[in-house]
Amino acid sequence: MDKETECRIITLETKLAYLEDFVRQLQEMSVAQTKQIDILKQENKLMSGRLQDLSDSLEEIPNRKPPHY
Asked: Model confidence over 24-54: pLDDT tens digits?
């Protein structure tokens, strides 16, 4: 194998190693974000339920003019 071909192969292997590391980091970040999204969905569902319970327990406010009129 001549020197130029060997140099090109080394360059390609180096780029591939960087790309593999980059893909691994992206996968880790994607997994972490998916977990965070799942947690936020659960919290949102819980808060929506609590808000619904609060709105159900409140009395209806009559439709009348405020005192300053």
From this structure: 999 999 999 999 999 999 999 999 999 888 8
